[in-house]
Amino acid sequence: MTDDTACIRATALTFSYGKGPNVLDIPEMTIRSGERVFLHGPSGSGKTTLLGLVAGVLKPTPGSLEVLGKDVGALSSPARDRLRASHIGYVFQMFNLIPYLNVRDNIALPVRINADRRRRLDGPVDEAVTEAAAHLGIEHLLTEKVTRLSVGQQQRVAAARAILGSPELIIADEPTSALDADRRHAFLELLFKNVEQSGSTLLFVSHDMGLADQFDRPLSLPELNRASA
Amino acid sequence: MLILNLARQSLTNRILTTSLTALSIAFSVALLVGVENVRTGMRESFSNTVSGTDLIVGSRGGTIQLLLYSVFGMGSPVANISYETWKEWDEHSAVSWTIPYALGDSHRGFRVIGTNESFYERYKYRGGQSLALAEGREAGGVFDVVLGAEVAARLGYALGENIAVTHGMGGFMDHDQMPFEVVGILDRTFTPVDRAIYVTLEGISAIHMGWETGAPPMMGEEVAPEEVLAMEEIPVTQITSFFLGAESRAFTLQLQRDISTNEEEPLTAVIPGVALAEMWRGIGYAEDGLRVISGFVVLVGILGMLVSIYTSLDARRREMAILRALGAGPRRIVSLLVLEAGLLSAIGAFLGVLFVYGGLTVLQPWLEGRFGLQIPIQMLDTTQMIYVGAVVVLGFVAGLVPAIKAYRTALHDGLSVRV
Predict the structure, then answer these.
(1) For chain B, what is the domain count?
(2) What is the distance in angstroms between the Cα of B14 and the nearest Cα belonging to chain A?
């Protein structure tokens, strides 16, 4: 029943906050390893909830969601935190960075939090950070305070942090919405290049349909989710 | 280690708030530790008002009362001691020395004490320091008078000045027929010694000649100073109390019992150290109030820290969401905030102790010179250690409140910030 190449597999995945109505009801959804998926849908279609479930911040019912071969619903909260820390890179829409750490420390944060991810690095943390920063063209900013960066630079720092240690799955939650068209394009190119190099799966969430054709496959959440109004 | 680093950088990032919070904790800790220091210093200084004296002896009465009139110059004795009884004890084989005190007269509100040369020789205060003359010499002649430092300063008297002694305390009947001459001024001791005037036992007798009824002599019955000076020996019939040094400390208790049960004359003997400590317990309760107040100050300091961390939480929800997304569990977020609070209070406590030592180093000579308060600069004692430890622990505990709030928010927010 398990597809070896499935990175994310949802089967009869439902979710509600407390005793409220279902905000998510997905009969079937599969994202294969190495795929670059463009997940789109308007606000309120359940994007944030779905990401929360995949990342293990929210707890799904056992058996309904598999991420990287693990039944997320069957894991304890700390185990889900470990899964996320070790195997998932995450990029937010904006304000991705810890304001009191400099660029280098921000990028290094996930491998400091998780020992498994640190072990997957080829060399010392500092070298890996410099390399990731170089991939995203921000190696000259490493000692900078993050509050002095432009939004575009901040997003590249966030991307460098997400790819550090080559996690199997990178989730990007509307990372380009704060960027103008030129920078959006440049950012996506960098992201794709790096995802390709590390062989990660990319789950990219946006409501900007203009970006869809740069991905392997678009996924429409309103079509998948029976609970969306 | 990571969390410690995060906490440290988070604190230094908000350096202004951090330092203000740490300072407010530092001041409360300094107050708490400082009050404890002053308290110890005061108690020590008080218990050492008299030192080197094994017993203080007066007529039969309360021990505190004896202490009050003989050491602190407050109140008056019920009865006197006869000269013969005093001499008997003075010559007792177990007694090394005695200092007689004859009380009852005053000069402009200050007590006049009749005593003898052993007062200058034997009287010791605070840690065994002897009396010393700032100017002039000891009172030896009948009309000689030596002033305590406070008296000299307040009344502005200099050597050679003539003063009259008043009968009783603050009365209006002056022994002005017999003026005394200032021959010496004592060094400051910061004890009640400074607030009295010292004459000889003979001087006290002389001014009371013709006053045997307790009232001024009738016209024509006054005794002139010249007549007194012409006397071969001036009779001394009674004293009020005497300080006693035993040949050996070991005799003290036996002597105390013997004196108190003396058949010939009813007497009371007290061990000054014991009685002073007892008295301090009685009047020292004010210090408990002081301690309670400084305890509250610490509490307010900690509350201030709690408020400052708590109010910063909303601004830090984003930070929490990022940490969560990077795989930090809620427990890490709780420990981050608890550690921040703990670090703050530890820094505050450390600074506070530094303040106390710094302040003492600067103020110690002044405190001693101005108030005679000896506050030793020494390691924190156990009580103070407990206080400082309690402040740090309290800081950690206080950090739990915002941390739990942050934990809830983090769980609720997940990876997005719902505002």
Answers:
(1) 2
(2) 8
For residue B147, what pLDDT is reported?
94
**Which residue among B6, B326, B332 places its CB closest to the CB of A90?**
B326
Is a pLDDT exceeding 50 seen at residue A1?
no
The residue with greater pLDDT, B408 or B26, is: B26
From the list B322, B332, B416, which residue is nearest A98 (CB)? B322
pTM: 0.70
Q: Tell me: do B71 and B25 sit in the same domain.
A: no
A15 interfaces chain B, CB cutoff of 8 Å: no
> Any chain B CB within 8 A of the CB of A228?
no
Q: Are B259 and B104 in contact (CB under 8 A)?
A: no
CA B125 to centroid of chain Cα atoms: 13
ipTM passes above 0.90: no
B109 and B236 within one domain: yes
* Domain boundary pick from B214, B244, B270: B270
Q: In angstroms, rounded to a whole number, what is the distance separating the alpha carbons of residues B151 and B158?
A: 11
Pick from B13, B328, B415: CB nearest A100? B13
pLDDT band at residue A2 using 50, 70 and 90 as cut-offs: very low
SS3 A19: coil
Domain's final residue, options B221, B241, B270: B270
Q: Which residue on chain B is closest to A17 by alpha carbon?
A: B412
Q: What is the rounded end-to-end Cα distance, in angstroms, of chain A?
A: 31
Provide the residue range defining the domain that includes B212.
55-270
Q: Is the pLDDT of residue B219 over 70?
A: no
Q: Domains, chain A, ranges and CATH?
A: 6-224 (3.40.50.300)
